[in-house]
Queue: 2 jobs
Job 1
Amino acid sequence: MSHEDTRVDGWYPPPVDELRRAIKTDFSLRVVAAVTTRLVAEASERHGLRGVEVVALGRALTAGCLLTTLTKHASERVRVELRSSGPLRGLLVDARGDGSVRGCLQRHLSSDEHAQLVARTGSASGPAGGSASGSASGSASGSASGPAAALAGSLAGVGAGRVAVAPAVGQHGTVTVTRDLGLDQRYQGSVEVASGEVDVDLEHYLNASEQLPSVLACEVILDREGKVLRAAGLLCQTFPDGDTAELEQLRGVLAAGNLADLLRHDRSCREIIGFSLGGEAFDDMGASPLYFRCGCGPERARQIVSTLGAADIEALADEQPQTEVRCEYCGAVYALDSAALRALAAEIRRGRS
Ligand SMILES: [Zn+2]
């Protein structure tokens, strides 16, 4: 992604998404922060997501990026698969140690489901009123009824300023994380979905399945039109045999929805790390860029079609002049015309003979 200069009237967009690692100067905690605004916006645009869909996938994409930092392997690949009972059915994220990430929802909401969610929770839109103080007691600006008021009501158990995604994700299901370190080193673990808020469930996974005392919080802030305004996340862990008291304190702070409140303004990774450590000193271990990228391409599309077998591919070629294959992860569409399909079928038959 280019580093284009798009400043308007003194407004500077965040340059690129980045991930930054830090260690608290007293060596009690390791902290990783990620600013993922651009990649979440790109995923949202590619998949045509709206409201709560953006927040759910955005939290998962951000968490995926943070989860690639648990080892020092640059080739580490983390796959998150959430299967759940809600209308979204879950999501998939595939993040790599080189900073690339891709992901998709299992299912999109219909317009009716979207409207029902707005009516029930107001969570299909972003936090109402950018100037709200962050209190959940109905201080959001704007109309006192409708989505804004419903949102304030729905936040009571979630934290001020934080959109509840559980009604769309569902509160029953499984989160499976597969960690691929290359050279056949693979680790897979899973936990039951407990909250349906995505980041909370992945935090539960880290603590329960990988037994790493961790605090994980990821947030996506939408503007009034439902576009991504900011997205970021934070992963904080103790070192082996470390004291978890500080971590518990941080968990308390984040449980109150304070990351969402913090993101009412543009924040750098350094500011997010500073916030997590209550302003205490940390050693900056450096930053690396993050971006949405999918490894698909025309050849991958051909491979997918070839799994149908020669006879079915020939039937497709007879039925329609062009067959489209859509990549689930990034929404890219690859078109194969009848001639290409027949050539592929012939190749498969030759391979078998
Ligand atoms: Zn793709």
Job 2
Amino acid sequence: MPRHTGFLKAGGQPVAPGRSRTLVSEGCDVLLINPPYPRRFGGGIVPPIGLCYLAAALRRIGVVPQILDLAVALPEYRFADGEKTVQLVRTYLRRYRRNPPKLIGVGPVVTATLRAVRQIVTACRTEVASKVIVGGPLCSVPGISAVARDYLGVDAYVAGDGESPISEVWKVVASSTDFVADIPGVGLPGGKEPPPHRELDL
Ligand code: B12
């Protein structure tokens, strides 16, 4: 098993060190970004299972996903490392300039990743015109709609399980420039907060 470099192929298989440039030049439809977080004492870094689930769901409908794992890229992350986070995302996205992903998903949003998620979203906005959505446990908490609008500045958020919602969001993004979302589990910034989506077939 190659060492986990921070770049995961869809399904979670790590990309061997030195091969990430090759993978990046291939581009992707949907880029999923795992935010860095300050590890608890004795805590570890493991592949982002939730994002791997999303990648698998997207692959099922013929979409090419890619995961950028910033928790691995910044294993000793502290809240003061915001600038490093921003630079990593901007450097990564610059390689996509000619063929940017249509959709970027950032998360999981938990209290400990909220600030990094904001920095990542800002970095994405600077480099590409892709739609940016977030998801994860904190997106089911009341008040997230205002946070999504006033703090994160995203196009939408997903409350609850993300597999079907992100697949439906992809279909909208791929087929039109309007970002309407009458999709279960998907909330628009400043709009009504949806009940968390639950996948029935897991
Ligand atoms: C296993 C686990 C871990 C593992 C593995 C996490 C991983 N990399 O996958 C480890 C030990 C590494 C870990 C670390 C941390 N964890 Co943790 N973890 C869990 C636990 C027990 C299960 C998470 C899980 O694997 N769920 C299964 C997967 C499939 O679901 P999921 O990750 O939630 O993803 C789904 C949806 O949330 C959504 N989704 C997630 N991300 C995104 C992104 C987008 C764009 C979209 C559209 C959807 C989406 O779609 C996914 C598929 O349905 C939860 C508690 C729980 N029951 O949820 C706590 C929990 C999420 N962790 C928590 C915390 C605090 C942390 C740490 C900050 C701790 C630390 N300081 O080290 C870090 C943060 C890491 C991170 N980036 O999330 C808290 C968050 C609480 C909060 N206040 O927000 C929880 C809720 C536990 C708790 N009650 O305290 N964690």
